[in-house]
Request: fold
Amino acid sequence: MELSPDQTIFWQYGFITINLTLVTTWGIMLFLISSSVVVTRKLKTGLQISRWQCFVEMIVTGINDQIKEVGLNKPQEYIGFIGTLFLFIGVSNVCIIFPGYTPPTASLSTTAALALCVFLAVPFYGISKTGILGYLKSYLQPTWIMLPFNLISEVSRTLALAVRLFGNIMSGGMIVAILLSISPFIFPVIMNALGLLTGTVQAYIFSILATVYIAAAVQNTKNKKKPKILNTN
Amino acid sequence: MKINWFTVIAQVINFLILVWLLKKFLYKPILNAVNTREKKITDELKDADAQKASAQQEKDDFKKKNTDFDTHKKNLMAAAVADAATQKEQLITAAKTQANELRTTMEKAAQEDQKNENAARAHDNQDQVFAMTRKALTAIASVSLEEHAANSFIQRLKSATEEEKKQMQDAFQSKEHVLLVRSAFALAEEQQASIKNVVKGVLNVEKTMEFKTDPQLVSGIELSTSGYKLGWNFSEYINALEEHTAEISKEKLKLQLEKKAVISN
Reply:
């Protein structure tokens, strides 16, 4: 039993490996980009719009509002990163409805890559807003003694992000696989449905946590205010 | 369960590419469309508010104009009614004045007509009476009326009282040397001689006498000089009849005019 789609290798040349994770990711990327191009090709600004435009607008404005609610006043600056996180993870997880599909988020490499992106995005946005010194000073808050703990916090929360998503999605796939061997009818369907819910919730949690971290970095250095702290347990 | 670092790097690159592409093809167009729509709706709402305010203003203006129009209409109507009443009074007064003038004119015309009619009737009456009397006297006494009138005149001179004679003598003994004898008909030579003798005898005056014919006397004779006149003719009787007839006509005319005045009012 393969625990990760990384183990399904299609092509390999030394260090370069084309595995199921990458192929699935490209497929999802293709789907997202082509859908976006198709929907936004004939955008209407009047009151009468197509149902697809309405659906996409609901998603985009929903993400925008969520970013705003967390505390980032200019959500259009962050929606590219946070929105893509949510859409990529969400679509990857929801596609488990298709038989034989393994989401790329079930690969620790993918979740680690996404967590690494968040890990890099936090200082990127923090520095872009207040400069490098302002951002580095945030590690000395509230006192310089907290510096090691702040550094550990940075690393551990990135690790937590990666492992949380990987664990949830991988475990969901594992449970379905185990249930299929024990009871091939009914229960796998229920667990699959539950997996849809779990996958969507995980996409939401991942992106909202990324938003919180970015907001914390931006607001710590800007207003000395702490953002909303979400209980992710 | 281990991390494939090539996959990690590839996924990071994939993710960054996806961020860039979605930003370009999804977020920007969608957010622009939403913002454009919101702006459009906001503008339309503002425009609708402005139009509503304008409509309210126009409504208020229209109401005010309507009220002003009604007031103006009432004032004009009241003025027109007052003018009509004044004109009516003026027209009635003018009509009454005209009616009065017309009535006066008609009265005058009627009186003139009556007067002319009375004169014509009197003249006719005189002629008729004269003709009738002459016919009657001719038939009864077998003498002409003219003779009878001359005889009556002579008799009257003869039967005059002393006082009358004195008056006549005083009157006829004036500086004028001509005594005028007028008669309605031409007197015969004999009658003229009789009258001359009687006058000479009774009045004791010696004057030239001149005889003239005047149909207005209606069968009679009149002796006149300056300041005195003596005569006998039918005119006196006929004048009395004329006065009586005129009095009756006057009463009739008065009744007719009263009736007309009642009808015109």
The mean pLDDT of chain B is 81.
